[in-house]
Design goal:
Largest sheet: none
Number of helices: 9
Distance between the termini: 38 Å
Radius of gyration: 16 Å
Order of helices and strands: HHHHHHHHH
Structural class: mainly alpha
Length: 160
Amino acid sequence: MNRRTFLSYYNPTAMEYFTELGYTGLFIAAFLSATILPLGSVVVLAPLLLSGLSPSMLVVVATIGNVLGSMTNYALGYWASLSLIKKWLRMSEEEFVRAEQHFKKYGIIALLFTWLPFIGDPLTVLAGILRIRLHWFVVLVTVGKAARYIIASYLILKVG
């Protein structure tokens, strides 16, 4: 699939399609947005919350999908070659070394911030490369991503 065809899936019509799928669409959007794909799951979460679906269930579904997507990145970091990962993340050797130093400086607590745009996905890949213990990875990533969805849901319902 070429880049143009691939990116054509991530337009407002695709987001509406995910929304129409309800919980399943949110799971798919959350899973994909946790990878390096250009997708935001909160764009699907918001209309589902406002449609009256269970906020608790939406938070659980989004968190599970997002954590499983992050685990996919972890697996890629764990098993893929370093040169492939650098190419995939579009990182130079210098950028990679800097990212690795930052990760080592802050330790596994950095995994609480995997929900942040731009740095979250590389953090999950880097955790795999550095062979962070999987149970710590899952716990910390889950806490961070669940907190993000809880706060986002609260704000959407409060403002919405």
